[in-house]
Amino acid sequence: MRRNCVRKNLKSLRLLFALLAVFGLIAAACGDDDGDDTGSGDDGTEQTDGGDGGDGDGEASDISVGMVYDIGGRGDQSFNDAAYRGLTQAADEFGIEVDDLEPSAGGENREELLRLLAEQGYDLVIGVGFAFADAVTAVSEEFPDTEFAIIDSVVEADNVASMVFAEEQGSFLVGAAAALQSESGQIGFIGGVENDLIAKFEAGYVAGAQAVNPDIQVEVSYISQPPDFSGFNDPARAREIAASMYQGGADVIYHAAGGSGNGLFEAAADAGEPGEVWAIGVDSDQYEIVGEPLNQYILTSMLKRVDNAVYQIIERYVGGEDISGVQEFDLESEGVGYSTSGDFLGDITGDLDAFAEQITAGDIEVPTAP
């Protein structure tokens, strides 16, 4: 905490010196009748004092943000990659210093990594995923002058922003898409880890499918059970489960399993030709990520805009706002939705948008538990 306080004092001194320098330049400019003599260097200095940080040279560049990913880290083509996009967008636009770390395979060192970033003086430290709840609780208490943020869980502390999503709403829409597209009347759901969060994906998906076809069959399977979180990074097991579902008659399968989702896409390619069987991605627009030929099997993806949430929380922090407390991202705030890449949904997008309007209007209340 001592190092963090020193860091903040240094920031204040640097800001004071920058402002004094700007006042000197303004005085010099006022005493010079020839505006052309100012030069590009003076213009650049004045823009720097604007504080927007968009070019990386403003006073916002003195702000630093650290991030610790969930299991699987960058390259999962889903949840972690979405958080990374939000972080890099903020870094590019605000000129802030950023660092990102990946936990061990089992995630045992989450708290250690959060503490490391706090000790190094990062102003805002973000934990990506509900599994960081205990770690954020502990470390935020140790470093009350550091701001923290957590995705997918709520931590009650004055220096923590809790970013939560209405995953059930986005899942409702892709569940409706699955039922509208299914020829067999049988679809599947693969969850990474069976817990309350992933149950929201399942509940919304089933409700959306049943809103289209009350008699539809939905086969549900989870890869692992808590405290084993390997289900978010086990594509081989997801491929095995998906293959069994396709062989059993399912023709559309949705996953909420992070990096394991690649196994679903591979199983779809094994099960038939594009258009005969389908997979549904999650979190990111996975059609745009996995590449051909696997993306030809991705009907749509449930978009959980973790990138938007990370970017917005950093933007607000850079702007000097209080970011603590619960921040919810739903259909109305464009925190969740569905993708149309590949144009496989065709004219059923009208049906999906109609469902979305009913949800935002409160005419449809989507369940959060199966």
Automatic annotation (TrEMBL):
<dbReference type="GO" id="GO:0005886">
    <property type="term" value="C:plasma membrane"/>
</dbReference>
<protein>
    <submittedName>
        <fullName>BMP family ABC transporter substrate-binding protein</fullName>
    </submittedName>
</protein>
<keyword id="KW-0472">Membrane</keyword>
<comment type="similarity">
    <text>Belongs to the BMP lipoprotein family.</text>
</comment>
<feature type="compositionally biased region" description="Acidic residues">
    <location>
        <begin position="34"/>
        <end position="46"/>
    </location>
</feature>
<dbReference type="InterPro" id="IPR028082">
    <property type="entry name" value="Peripla_BP_I"/>
</dbReference>
<feature type="region of interest" description="Disordered">
    <location>
        <begin position="34"/>
        <end position="59"/>
    </location>
</feature>
<feature type="domain" description="ABC transporter substrate-binding protein PnrA-like">
    <location>
        <begin position="64"/>
        <end position="367"/>
    </location>
</feature>
<dbReference type="Pfam" id="PF02608">
    <property type="entry name" value="Bmp"/>
</dbReference>
<feature type="signal peptide">
    <location>
        <begin position="1"/>
        <end position="27"/>
    </location>
</feature>
<dbReference type="InterPro" id="IPR050957">
    <property type="entry name" value="BMP_lipoprotein"/>
</dbReference>
<keyword id="KW-1003">Cell membrane</keyword>
<dbReference type="InterPro" id="IPR003760">
    <property type="entry name" value="PnrA-like"/>
</dbReference>
<keyword id="KW-0732">Signal</keyword>
<keyword id="KW-0449">Lipoprotein</keyword>
